[in-house]
Amino acid sequence: MQAAKRSIGIGIIGLGTVGGGVAQLLLTHRADYVSAYGIDIDVRRGCALDIGMARAAGLPDDRFTPDWHDVVTDPTVDIVVELIGGEHPATEIYEAAFAAGKHVVTANKALLGRHVERLAKLAHDAGVQIKCEAAAAGGIPVVNALEHTLVGNKILTIAGILNGTTNYILSRMASEGADYADVLADAQRLGYAEADPSADVDGFDAASKTAIMASIGFHTRVTTDEVYQQGIRQVSAEDIAVAADMGYTIKLLGIARMTAAGVEARVHPTMIPNGHQLAAVSGAMNAVYVVGDAVGETMFYGAGAGRFPTASAVVGDIFSLAEPMSRGEDPLPEIEPFGAVVPVLPIEELSNRFYVRLRILDRVGALAPVVDAFAQAGISISQINQLEVGEDGACSVVFITHEAREADMTAACQELEKLDAVRSVANVIRIEDTSKWLEGAMEN
Ligand code: HSE
Question: For the chain, which domains are there?
């Protein structure tokens, strides 16, 4: 057995699902880590509102505090692990930790997605690091891949199923033909979806993760607010069935691409070919597909949430800091911010093929003005499919377009809404040309 060279002190702020899991993992595996790596990871402080949370995680009472300041100011704590989420007091915790010369490990996607530039600069200036593997896709080690093992590449595309709640809902809708509202209610009852599901179903959670990964992968700064966000509330069982008939699967994807014109960053329901690797990712699982110019396609799959998967990512970050510290060396200071900011392209400037489902009155001449509205917007139609007439005398008609500009599609929808025969523009879903994701890869 290799002797521990040094004991590294950990302070965990937040002992809920993830924080409690981190404490439990570190406590139960402590001797194994000493044996395998020669590093003693010692949880010296745990902070939560209630001592019961510390006890549930196995932390001795004398290591518990209800005040996060006690963790940050404890001279035996080398690494502060922030797992409370939200912007405050997380921001103050980071600032105090940096001022005390301590590294921060976090899963806080909401905070980093919005404020990483300022926080990273503070960390850099203090000579410490922010580590955030758990903030991007829970247990999936994709941040480490982007920061380390893929550094020889120019990263071209990051496209992922980054939210387990929405993937669970869409997967069940697809397999059962069930409606969104019914599956959401069931998912809430089973604990897969939050009582207030908006951060998940409206795309904010996936947008934060997209922003973090795009920033790291492309060496630039993308904030959550710059990521176009559209959630899954509009997706119906009918959309999923029609897409399936056409050979497509509908997934909520976070897509970031580095193009000659700028960075694309968007979260929205996306039709991808059934044969694509991401189409096979079902249930609450996550996956991140990364294309590097040298490596080509890579795919990372795993649990994007949950107590121990997320704790696994946090402990990985703790070790990446603890390893040099155990040798008496300081980990390198934070390397972000990168200094060069590549603009994020407005969604209006992007182009896609589109699936457009209209509710139209089933009567003579109803389609002519609809087709004309697409033509007036400069949008070419490649396919029209009329579905069964409903009890209200309206039918769904699905239009598949050739590649069209987002701005033109918005204009077309505004005109379509005005037509007498059109009850509603029921849904517009982007059809992704996944071959574009490989543009710029080197020939083998
Ligand atoms: N709520 C997220 C999900 C996990 O459903 O995947 C935390 O980001």
Answer: 8-138+307-326 (3.40.50.720), 142-302 (3.30.360.10), 348-432 (3.30.70.260)
